[in-house]
């Protein structure tokens, strides 16, 4: 059975909870609260979606080192890459530029034409990877100030309550002060993950773009050299040779 003291305590806790504090704050408090919560969920969504997108490209890079450069020519090598992947896009754009060069009416060096096409392809991939990061940067910068605005409104309402009551009693200021603290905390909770996600994703983008640019340079060198120039890890090296002395002379054997 609930005693009167316990019931009164429960009633007081409900009176000073999150929802009552927001209801007392009115439209401004609800607007700030909804804006911050929505920004937090969008930031988390961007974090997960960009991580998944980055991880796909990182996994694709392993396949490039494994089998791409061992193909007899670039067109056969392209078929070994996942369709619509970042690396496949660079190769396809390079091959397309090679085919288009013969149709140009104004003279331009083939290597320059191919290099420009591959560079544009790489830049478009970088722009796609950077999508959503400006939003994270904006949330990380603005969210604390939005929370601070809610804090100021809460403190203002607390001062109004004190002035109306003529004394600073706890029951008059607990609601507005609690609302102010909630807005401060919510602003920080929204901003910190956004800043951390932005810096982490930006660093991963930099590593991915370094790998893509290196691959684009390798593709360009391969195309303008007719396949003579390729990365060292894509060249099958001959087996080492041992030279050993025998009773009849010098004998050469494979390791």
From TrEMBL:
One Pfam family recorded for the sequence: MotA_ExbB
Membrane-topology descriptor: Multi-pass membrane protein
Domain named MotA/TolQ/ExbB proton channel: residues: 106-211
Record bears the keyword Secreted: no
Protein location: Cell inner membrane; Membrane
Domain of life: Bacteria
Transmembrane feature ranges: 27-47, 135-160, 180-201
Annotated keywords: Cell inner membrane, Cell membrane, Membrane, Protein transport, Transmembrane, Transmembrane helix, Transport
Subunit structure: The accessory proteins ExbB and ExbD seem to form a complex with TonB.
Function: Involved in the TonB-dependent energy-dependent transport of various receptor-bound substrates. Protects ExbD from proteolytic degradation and functionally stabilizes TonB.
Family statement drawn from the similarity comment of this UniProt entry: Belongs to the exbB/tolQ family.
Name of this chain's protein: Biopolymer transport protein ExbB
Source organism (scientific name): Sphingomonas abietis
